[in-house]
Amino acid sequence: MVDGVPADDLQLNAGGIINVNGNFSMNGNSDGYVSGTLSNNNTLNLSGGTALTFNAGGTYVHNIDGGAIPNENFVVGSNCIVSGVTVTAPTNLNENFGNFTWDCAGQSVDISLINPSLANIQGDLNITNTNGNDLILNNTINIVNNDFVVGASGIIQLQNGNVIQNINNAIISGIVKTEDQDGFSGAGNTSINPTTLTLNAGSTIEYNAAGAQNITGTAAIGANYSNLIISGSGTKTLANDITVNNNLTVNAGATMEVGGDDISVSGTTSISGTFSDNNGGGNTNLTNVTMQGGTLSHVDNVDISGTLTASSGTNTITGAGGITVTGATTINAGATLVNSGTGNNYYNGAVINNGTWSSPGAINIRFQGGLTNNGTMSATGTGTYTFDQFNQSIAGTQPIVFQGAVNISNGVTLTNDNTSGITIQGQLNGLGGASAFVNNAGRTLYYQNATMPMATGNFTVTAANNNVYYSLTSAQTVRNTTYQNLFISGSGIKTANAAFTVQGNLNIASGATLYDNGNLITVNGNVTNNGAATTTGGAAGISITGAGGHSITGNGSYQRLTIATAGNTTTMVDGSASFSVDNLIVSAGTLVIGNNTLTINTQLTGTNLTASSAAGSSMVLNGTSPNFLGTAGIPSLVNFTLNNAAGTTMANNFEVTGTPYPYFWYS
Question: How many C-beta atoms surround the C-beta of residue 70 within 10 A?
Answer without folding.
Answer: 21
